[in-house]
């Protein structure tokens, strides 16, 4: 049997694999202290329009591990899903995002900004997810139109009928929806017409390949055209170069997110992008 797995007993003593497993075990063990020890924080990445005007931000989780430094959510979100703690973490992210929106409402420089929050499968499939979101919005007294929830295709496809019911309930309340990593899922296109989605986010892998792989450039154009025909907004994620941005603009995309504009950063840093600090010499 071992032969069909690796064909070589060395496989079982692979030091790199061993190390990866150890990290996983260690992170899994440390997750609870991450939550209780306030090691989780939120970064914000701007979403901009054609004129680089900041329209809002996506909130992204970070884990400041005492030994390992800043850990990517790609590494620890799956662990939080396995252990179920994503429910509490996800609730905290939503609550924090709404509290941020509330703080912004008092400041005319920031009062028009929206915040996009990633929602994991396990979080979304809680029976009372809709009630939880509405409760947070009520408690923080935030305008629901400023909150955007990001779902991936795979979350939606797991239970399309149940998903549509929940989406309609939240949209009636004013919340909008974005389909994250669009184009990477296995879904058929016909379901898209039934989904009450406000925005498609073109996955960054396609954006990355715009000038590299012709078929990916075609996919980008197709997604933009499709969103347009379905009356949805389209946002390109992972925009890193001006050439990519130009291609996207020329093909009708109007919303962008990526390192070309800014990296995810603590809230104070994002705020400096919204209103550039006045030049010192003007004050003198
Ligand atoms: P995502 O929602 O697709 O977020 C976009 C990811 O792309 C972020 O990675 C962001 O830092 C990165 N990114 C943005 N612009 C660029 C760019 O120009 N180039 C490149 N190479 N990357 C760029 P991050 O922050 O590591 O997050 C990874 C994923 O973790 C997110 O993908 C999302 O699926 C998940 N995640 C993050 N925060 C949360 C959260 O609060 N809840 C849940 N459920 N998932 C989260
Ligand atoms: Mg996202
Ligand atoms: Mg994405
Ligand atoms: Mg992603």
TrEMBL record:
This is EAL domain-containing protein. It comes from Methylomonas paludis. Residues 24-278 form the EAL domain.
